[in-house]
Write a structure and sequence with these properties.
The protein has one domain. It is 26% helix and 10% strand. It has five helices and four strands; from the N terminus they run ααββααβαβ. It has a four-stranded antiparallel sheet, with no helix packed on it. Strand 1 and strand 2 form a beta hairpin. The relative contact order is 0.19. Bound molecules: 2-oxoglutaric acid. The site of 2-oxoglutaric acid (AKG) has 7 residues, from strand 2 and strand 3.
């Protein structure tokens, strides 16, 4: 179903997440997947790893090739949605790919860009989940995903729960971040 920008905003306010279908053309997604796999095969992703959770790696992608195509970086439908949620001054901040090797550890629930309202060393204990969004993460599956191959987990409320106090616990073994 093609949601209007207003319906997306309502879903984000309610659930913190929303599923968008058909934003990017399939041929573009295939070119992006091929670009990522070439980088992976050449070892280029290894050099750009920012997080490695026992085989679940996140690497920074170069903003070039298919990512510079208008249908990706200036996708009119996406821009309308983002502008409605964040206003017209929103900018891309990073482009990353998650690769889960067989047997990799699970990702834990976390906040990517926490607002720091702490004071004099005191942890802010308010509920940040009621604030309007100030940053968005767009997760784009490049392969068919299921519970077995370790997709990024989102569910209705996942990105609200993460902003409540106390934050979700971080497992001891979870997540070497560089
Ligand atoms: O590991 C994942 O699936 C998502 C990665 C993520 O949440 C992050 O990069 O902050």
């Amino acid at each position: 179903m093609r949601l209007s920008a207003a319906s997306v905003a309502r879903a984000v306010e309610r659930d913190g997440v929303v599923r968008l279908d058909g934003i990017f053309p399939r041929p573009l997604l295939k070119r992006i997947a091929a670009r990522v796999m070439r980088l992976y095969a050449s070892g280029g992703l290894r050099e750009r790893v920012v997080r490695d959770i026992a085989g679940r790696t996140t690497s920074i992608l170069p903003f070039d090739g298919p990512f510079l195509e208008r249908s990706f970086c200036a996708n009119p439908r996406l821009l309308a949605i983002v502008e409605n949620l964040l206003g017209g001054t929103a900018r891309w901040s990073s482009l990353e790919v998650v690769m889960a090797e067989s047997g990799a550890a699970a990702q834990y629930q976390h906040v990517d860009a926490p607002l720091r309202l702490d004071r004099k060393g005191k942890r802010y204990k308010g509920d940040l989940s009621t604030l309007p969004p100030y940053a968005l993460a767009l997760a784009v599956p490049l392969v068919d995903v299921d519970e077995e191959n370790g997709p990024t987990a989102v569910w209705p409320g996942s990105h609200k729960e993460g902003l409540k106090y106390p934050p979700p616990p971080r497992p001891r073994s979870g997540g070497a971040t560089r």
